[in-house]
């Protein structure tokens, strides 16, 4: 198999440009496509054999559910059952967008999507290419991130190609994604709703409309998740580069970083702009963004990990950020990815 890449302008493309991708989805094949969060590896969510190809290709454990993507709120009843009216109201406010609901699964959705559970995670992505692919294929599309299981998620088509060259038939290349981290996932089958994964939609914004949301400790990337996984990203180590990753967090990160550089002579640093000013002589350095702009850090997170992983170093050292807004999602990803955590 040779992987074909179709390049499109996300703001100016035609249905004909992605016609081949549409036909592949309809025929039960895989397509990597952009969303506003990360690139997804998609298949027809109603086709069990197609969904199984996602798990096989990603080397993804079968008990790790994937999210179903729809193109319109009206399609929600084809994916989920017993949807409360307040969830329709919430979806009208936040969809299309990076917010995923866990609801009761419609039997039309392949059970493999949800690891055989009676729930389903569903969202409507805010990316014109993704929306056209879903709408024109006339299928809800099951799609986890388009990376090998456990590796950093892909925010550009070349990241997908690095992981799946000649293993999938097609990648739609529409440039960089917008947010750089995956969607926020909330289980709304519980009262109060439960945050299962922090993501690009800050939980503070959602709570303005939904009220109380339970935030378990595992959401911060701390502790171990117990029980069946209703959402991606709960049970297994994720987002990890090949090289060991050391996460530094706490009040005295500067001294902790200096000590680590004494211990690890051949290290690569991924730092905020403010902290990087103290390490200008460090050869292998990536500035991930400003502490004052956590969306910038989220946007650069996975691409920075992938870039540093390719360099001739022995270990990657990365600086943590404040757990506010999208910072909670960043720290969730980093703690799950880290081989070692230093709290200074």
Describe this structure in words.
- The protein is of the alpha/beta class and 344 residues long.
- It has two domains: 4-220, DHBP synthase, CATH 3.90.870; 245-343, 3-Layer(aba) Sandwich (Rossmann fold), CATH 3.40.50.
- Helices cover 29% and strands 20% of the residues.
- The chain contains eleven helices and 16 strands.
- The strands form three sheets. Strands 2, 3, 4, 5, 6, 7, 8, 10 and 11 form a nine-stranded mixed sheet that branches. The protein has a five-stranded parallel sheet with strand order 14-13-15-12-16, sandwiched between helices. A two-stranded parallel sheet has the order 1-9.
- Helix 1 crosses helix 5 (128-137).
- The longest helix has 16 residues, at 294-309.
- It is globular and about 55 Å long.
- It starts with a strand and ends with a strand.
- The relative contact order is 0.15.
CATH architecture heading of the largest domain: Alpha-Beta Complex
- Number of DSSP strands? 16
Q: In terms of per-residue confidence, which ranges show pLDDT below 50 for 5 or more consecutive residues?
A: none
> What is the CATH C-level name of the largest domain?
Alpha Beta
Structural class: alpha/beta
The run of helices and strands is EHEEHEHEHEEHEHEEEHEHEHEHEHE
Distance between the termini: 49 Å
Q: What is the average per-residue confidence, as pLDDT, rounded to a whole number?
A: 94
Counted by DSSP, the helix tally is: 11
What proportion strand? 15-25%
Which fold name fills CATH's third level, the topology of the largest domain? Answer: DHBP synthase
Please give the largest β-sheet.
9 strands, mixed
Shape: globular
The helical percent reads 25-40%
How many discrete domains?
2
